[in-house]
Write a structure and sequence with these properties.
Elements: H1 6-10, E1 25-29, E2 37-43, E3 46-55, H2 60-65, E4 71-78, H3 90-93, H4 98-114, H5 117-120, E5 124-133, H6 138-159, E6 172-180, E7 183-186, H7 190-195, E8 198-205, E9 210-217, H8 224-253
Length: 262
């Protein structure tokens, strides 16, 4: 993988973005009214419904192991009409595919890094991420939207007097970075992701800590220096995503609880 030249950095992508520009981002809170917290996140043409529902119990394994506090678990699915050709539901195959299992575990890990499970109490937060339309970056959009849904669910718990302390320690967001035609690009759409020689997903908190970095070369290799550039590009994008999360939450809450934690 070659280093980017000045001309490559200035080149415009097919959708008009520069190499370090996010796709247009929009949140629609309250999209699933029966959930305790929900949002439709749209990043470019990718749209994901993220809904958090509170269950007043914890998994049996926690009780058996004497674990205290609450738990967060995620489910991820792509609706049949989310892609250009119909995608059969997992239930029709009798099992989740490996990709879905990997993604929902990633979402769960990201959210548990952001929430104080002791403060959550003996509850399970179920977070459902359903892809309405897929144009690349569905796992990263799911994490970014799910964090907002969890924050809204925590606010609902506090409004009902079910918790007194704020469980969310920080915000968490994710973005993709890739090397396409020897250019490092932020927030890949489907075509860019398909053509990428190297693909990286970066998950970070609002405190600047990494939750996870997933990366691989597709019949390509990359150097440590190139990896550092990709991570830096992803970090800058995540800072902008978290700023958008904060803006939405402030408008939804009126005033954020314990704002310094974000």
């Amino acid at each position: 993988m070659a280093n980017q030249s000045d001309s490559q950095l200035l080149a415009v992508r097919p959708d008009g973005r520069s190499h370090d520009q996010l796709r247009p981002l929009h949140f629609t809170p309250g999209f699933a009214p029966n959930a305790d917290g929900s949002v439709l996140i749209a990043t470019g043409d990718t749209q994901v419904i993220c809904a958090a529902t509170v269950e007043p119990s914890v998994p049996r394994w926690m009780k058996e192991q004497g674990a205290t506090g609450g738990w967060i678990t995620a489910e991820y699915s792509m609706l049949p009409y989310s892609t250009l050709t119909r995608r059969p539901r997992d239930i029709s195959k009798g099992r989740l595919d490996g990709r879905s299992v990997e993604i929902q575990r990633l979402i769960g890990r990201a959210l548990r890094a952001a929430v104080d499970l002791q403060t959550l109490g003996e509850r399970t937060l179920w977070v459902d991420c359903d892809v309405l339309q897929a144009d690349g970056g569905t796992r990263t959009a799911s994490i970014t939207g799910a964090c907002v849904a969890v924050a809204l669910a925590c606010a609902a718990l506090r409004a009902r007097g079910q918790i007194t302390q704020w469980p969310l320690r920080c915000l968490v967001a994710a973005v993709s970075v890739g090397a396409v035609d020897e250019r490092l690009l932020l927030d890949l759409n489907y075509q860019e992701d398909k053509d990428a020689a190297v693909d990286l997903n970066v998950v970070m908190t609002s405190r600047g800590a990494f939750v996870e970095v997933q990366g691989a070369g597709e019949e390509a290799t990359f150097s440590r220096g190139e990896l550092e550039k990709m991570i830096a590009l992803g970090q800058a994008g995540i800072q902008r995503l978290i700023a958008s999360q904060r803006e939405l939450l402030r408008s939804s809450f009126g005033s954020l609880p314990e704002t310094e934690m974000f």
